[in-house]
Amino acid sequence: MKSIINEFKDFINRGNVIDLAVAVVIGAAFGAVITSFTNDIFGGILGAIGGQPSVGDLSFTIGQGEIRWGAFLDAVINFLIVAFALFLVIKGINAAQNLAKRNASEEEAAEEQTELELLREIRDALVRRD
The domain containing residue 109 runs over which residues? Predict the structure, then answer.
């Protein structure tokens, strides 16, 4: 029983779990901002064009049923904004990682050159000694 508790403590104390928790909280807050933008600003503009106070209110009825196509449009707009923002974040992360890899490979190449120069100096010193 104690080993399970210790394993759980180790799991919780890992940086990945904390990073994931932070990402979830920030993601939820970001989702709220996007929802507000879509409903309050973008939806208001589209609603003014459509003659309704907001896009979410746009609907039509067929018989006894109401088709709330505006609410669906809100959800699609939210998804596209979040997906685009996520795309930009991932693109930025990939660019930063590629830059870091390039810098590391340049440093390795410089270090290899230094080692090569050192080996040449040792070789030349051994040749002069003979």
Answer: 2-129
Inter-CA distances, 11 with 23, 65, 114, Å: 17, 50, 43
Tell me the angle at which helices 2-13 and 15-36 cross, rounded to the nearest 10 degrees.
50
How many Å is the Cα radius of gyration of the chain? 29
Tokens of 26: 């920030």
pLDDT at 65: 92
Q: What is the pLDDT of residue 14?
A: 74
**Closest alpha carbon to 45 in 15, 73, 14:** 73
Band of residue 46 on the pLDDT scale cut at 50, 70, 90: confident
CATH code, 121: 1.10.1200.120
pLDDT in tens, 55-103: 777 788 999 999 988 888 888 888 888 888 888 888 988 898 888 888 8
CB 42 within 8 A of CB 33: no
Count of domains for the chain: 1
> What separation, in Å, do the N-terminal and C-terminal C-alpha atoms of the chain show?
71
